[in-house]
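pasting for ref. prot 1 ->
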Amino acid sequence: MKRFELTVGGKDYKIDIEKFDGKQAVVKVDGRPYEIDVKKTTEGHSPGRPASPPAGDTQRVSPAVPEPPLPPIAAVPSGGQVVAPMPGMVLEIMVAVGDSVVAGMPVVKMEAMKMENEIPAAVNGVVKEIRVKVGDRVSTDEILLVIDEA
């Protein structure tokens, strides 16, 4: 794992790169996980940024232009909790109390940043409680539903 410290718009961030295969990366920004799609520019690096950062385990790099925040992925759930990965509106609840679900199965559809996102169950089990309804506006990490683990 590589660790970076970045300053963007005057704010410091701690970045841990957990996985990088050249096309996708999994990083943690101040402990929050994000998935990133990486696209190579024609020069091999982004304009205004060094082609490669200085060597070392912890590096401090100040980008020339602040980047917009990265879209979050679902927070690590506690037990069978399904949480909102970002603020948005509930469009559809795809399960009912008592339904059996498997990890990865979509259970809630949300709209966030004008995109529809299917939120998956994190564990196998039975839906115990649904805490939201269609049309609800939810915050990041708000519990959407609870699954009794099988």
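and prot 2 ->
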Amino acid sequence: MFYIQHGYGKSTKIDDVIARGEVHGVILSPGHEDAATLESTAAAYAGAGLDVLVDPQAYIYSTRPKGTLRFHSRNGVDLSKMSWAGSATSVLADISKVEELGLRLGLSAKLIAPSPYHASFGDYWMPTALQYARTAASEWHSRDVLATIAISQDALADWAVVEEWLDAATTLDVFGFYLVVSRSDTSYPPVAWNPRLLANLLRVIHTLSVVNGFEVIWGYSDIDGLLGLAAGANGMAAGWSYSLRQFSIDRYNTERGGGAQPIPRIFASEFLSAMRTTEIADILELAPTNEFESLTSAMPDSVTSVSNPDAQVRHLVGLSLLATSIADLPRPERFSAVRTGVESAMDRFSRLAKLNISVDGRYVARLRSYSEALSIFEREVAR
């Protein structure tokens, strides 16, 4: 299932992707729209039959310095008094704020519980996170509760520690988990995963979803989310801007300049990569006409003239179609489909190299890390 990760600058992008792609739901950000606009956004997509969730984004308040988002206060979910030493009363107050927001937005079926951010699975915030999830499950008994897991990628390094956390997490009386993983490098396309960290993340998803039967949605996962689906995730999410495709806790508490205009990129499904429109144009021009037929059929005639907003929509449309085709497969077949896709994409990049067509080397590096992570995951899960 494919979710659109909502944030600043939505314009008509969500509507355009829904019209052309395969979208299961939308994950709303109460920090990026004022109360009235967020209400109308939620009503529009719930009315269209989509699964509408709201991410409380409480994890930004457990960082040092504490993070900020512009519209949290106006939406009633300023949780800045969150503390690892908070009382049961303060936890209940925060849970009530999130429930009130859900009621105001008309989200009666499913709510995401707030949670702090974790630099590791053994940090002092972890008992607090479990307390938030348990309190939400107790208070929101008429709804399906998704507990939040907001962690650093480095928290995944030691499987023994991760497994100990899983022993506690799987005792929660919740419907599922909403997972966000902070990457240490925020460049786009993202740098390659450490295969061990990614393999352990896939094992977390598999343990929660396949072994224990929880629903798992991997937020801000973009193309990486396809591997999550292969491991058993029920949903993955991505947004139009690069910051909505890759989660980084630093972007909430670091001053950032305006930066340069983003380079237009489109998801090229047969390469499993978000490639520059100029790179795609070179492939279409320099490769034999029958070499990459599916790429040719998916792109406009003048790909270099595609605007950045159009490229963002095309990215999400292409990714949503592929994600849905994978999610529709029986779980045992998903893994094979994704592995085959990774291997085929690597082979296509090899063919480009033989044709002397130059593209960003990060694409192949990421695919190699995918391949190694899938191998580690398959080997260790089968034990």
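The chain is about 45% helix and 15% strand.
The two ends are 28 Å apart (CA to CA).
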